[in-house]
Amino acid sequence: MDIFLSFFESKKWPFIVQQWKKDQLRRISRVRIFPASVFPRFRFRYLLHCMPVIVASSLTKIYSPKSRHAVRALDDVSLQVQRGEIFGLLGPNGSGKTTFIKLLLGIAFPTSGSGTVLGKPLGCTEAKARIGYLPENHRYPPYLNGEQILRFFGKLTGLESRLLEERIDEVLKQVGMEQWRKVKFRKYSKGMMQRIGLAQALLNQPEVIFLDEPTDGVDPLGRKEIRELIKHLRDRGTTVFTNSHLLSEVEMISDRVAILHKGKLIREGTVSSLTKAGDQWEITAHGNVDSVRMDLQARNLRFQLDKERIIITVPDLQEANHVSDLLRSRGLLIEGMQQKKHSLEDFFIKVIQDESR
Amino acid sequence: MKLLAIIENTIRESIAKKTMIGFFAISNVILIIMLLIALFSDFDINVKLQGLEQFSNGASPLETLVRTMEVMIANLLYMAAIFLSIFATASIMPNTLEKGAIDLLISKPVSRSTILAGKFIGGTLIVFFNVAYYILGMWLIISFRTGYWDGGFLLTVFPITFAFIVLYVFLLFIGVTTRSSALGIILAYGFLIILSPLLAKREVFLYAISSSEAYRGIVDVLYYILPKPDDISSIMNNVILHSEINWMPVWSSAIFAGVLYGFTQYIFNRKDF
Ligand SMILES: Nc1ncnc2c1ncn2[C@@H]1O[C@H](COP(=O)(O)OP(=O)(O)OP(=O)(O)O)[C@@H](O)[C@H]1O
Ligand SMILES: [Mg+2]
Q: Is residue B55 part of a domain?
C-alpha cells in the first residue's frame, strides 16, 4: 500500500506540471503576442519568465469585521513581485506585513480583493508544494530533534523519502546546523530555532520563499550567512519575499521594497530609487577650513565642520566640481566626492513620520 | 503520505507530553492490583458456584459468575477509561492551533481537512490502543483465574472507543472554536457525569420536574439528538452478557458525531490564523 502510494505521488508531479504547462500554452495562444508558429517553446519559456510570481490585487483584510474590535489590517494593497527578485516588505509593528503573507498563503482569508502566487489562486494546495515559508514566532514540536522536524515537514511537502533524506543533509549544511541535527528542539537557542526554521522552508527547493523576519534573534555572523544564503537563492532563480524591521539588512539585499503603514501601501520601488536624494553631492575635504568658510556661505551651500574636516552638500555635479576646484585652490585636500543618498532607514523614518502627521 | 505523517506526529506528541504515558501507567497499576487480587485472594470459585446455581436459570453457573464479574469490572473501567482519554486528548487540537504552529502546517501542501482528519484519527488510535491493552490484560487475568474463556469482554473495547470518539469530536469542536482544552474537558465531563445520565433516565428524574407536554417534548428531543454515553455503557454490558443490543443509541450518537465533525470542519476551513 505504502509503496503504491509513494509511487503514485512521485508519478503525480510530472503530470501536474505538464497539465500546468498546457494551461499556460492555452492561455498564451489566446494572448497571441507572437504568431503561433514562431518557436512555441521559446515563447512559452519567455512568458513564463515574465509572469509575476506574486500578484496581489486590492487585498483587504479586516479581522473580526462584525465586532467592535474590528481591525483593518490590510487596506487595498496591490503589489506584484517578479520571478527571481528579492522583495522586502517594510513597515512599523502592526502595519500588516505578516497579515499580507498569511493572505498569500491561505492561512487567513482576504475580506476583499484577490491574488495569485505562482499563477495559482491564494491558498491553492498545489502551489504550496512549490513555496517555502518561515513564519514569525514559529513553533516546532519541542520533543523532536532538528532532523525529525525536517523529516515531518518534508513529508508534508510530499517529498519522496530518499530525496527527502538527501535534502535534509543539504539544508542542514546550508544553515550551518549539521552538528545540532540530533539535538531536541527545546534545547535550541533562539538563533538555532531560526536556522532550523529556515532549513524547513528550503526543503522542497521552493520557487518562491516567504521569510517573516528571517534574521530575528540571529547573531551578526549568522545574519551575514543568511543574507548570503538569500542572495544565493536569488541567483538560482528563487523569488524571495521578506519582511523585516532591520532596514540596513533589507537595504543590503533587496532589489525592490514596499512600505506598509497602517495596512496601506504607501511607497514602492527599487532601493536605489527610494534612497536617492535628488542629484545632491557630498564633498569631504580637510585642511584649513576657515579659509573657505566665507566663499561657501556666499554660494549658499550647506556644510558641516568637524575639526579639520569639512563636509559640503552641493546641489549638482557641476557645482560640485566648481567647489572642489575652490577647495584645492585654497590648499584643502579632497577626501571624497559622492552622490548623496539617504539610508533606507532615514527614508523609512521620514516617510512614516510624514504619513503619521 | 501526508495524513500518516500527521497521525504519527499526533501520537508522538501525546507520548512526549506524557499524557499517554500517564494513561498507560494507570492502566498498568490497575492491572497489577487485579493480578495481585487474582493471585492471593481466598476467592474460591467452587464455593461461589454452589451459591449461584439457583440464580443461573439454565446457563452454566460459571458463565453467569464470570460474566457478572466482567460487567462489574467493565463498568468501572468504562468511566475511568473515558475520563482518562478525554484528559489525554483534550489538548491535541488546541496545541495544533497554536500561533506559529498552525501557520506553518497550513503553509504546507496539506488541506485543512487532512489536518483535522489526522488529529481525529491520531487521537482515536491513541485511545483505542490504550483501552485495548487494558481490556486484554484484564480479560487474561479474569480468564486465567476462573478458567472460563469468553470473548464477549474483549469486544467491550469497541463500545468504549465509540463513546470516546463521540466525545472527542466534541473536544475537537471546542478546540477549533475556542482553542481551549480546559473548557473542552469541563464541558465533556459535565455532559458525561450530569447531563447524559439525567437524559438517559429522564422518566425517573427529568419528567418529575413538570408534567407539561412541551417540557417533556424538549427533554425527549434533547435525549435523541445528543450522544448517549450512558446508554452505550448499557450496550457494553449487553455485549459481555451476549444479550440483545439496542442500536438506537449507537446510530443516533454516530449521527451527532458526524454532523458535529462536519460543522467543525466547516468552521476550521474558514478560520483565519
Ligand atoms: N489573528 C488576528 N486577529 C485579530 N487581529 C489580528 C490578527 N492578526 C493580526 N491582527 C492585527 O492586524 C494588524 C496587523 O498585524 P500584523 O501581524 O500583520 O503586523 P506586522 O506588520 O506583521 O507587525 P510586526 O512587525 O509586529 O510583526 C495588527 O493591528 C494586529 O493587531
Ligand atoms: Mg509580523
A: no
Collect all residues of chain A within an 8 Å Cβ-Cβ radius of residue B13.
Answer: 141, 143
**CA-to-CA distance for B181 and B90, rounded, in angstroms?**
5
Amino acid at A338: Q
Sheet holding A112-117, edge to edge: A71-81, A54-63, A112-117, A120-121
The helix/strand count (H/E) of chain A reads as: 13, 14
Chain A, chain B: beta-carbon pairs less than 8 Å apart: 82
pLDDT score for A162: 92
A263 Cα to the center of ligand 2, angstroms: 12
Is position B66 within any domain? yes
Are residues A241 and A247 in contact, defined by beta-carbon separation less than 8 angstroms? no
ipTM of the complex: 0.86
A255: Cβ contacts below 8 Å, ≥ 6 apart? A85, A86, A87, A234, A270, A271
Are B108 and A153 in contact (CB < 8 Å)? yes
CATH 3.40.50.300 matches A279-343: no
| pTM as predicted | 0.83
A107-143 residue pLDDT tens = 999 999 999 999 999 999 999 999 999 998 888 888 9
Counting the structural domains of chain B, the total is 1
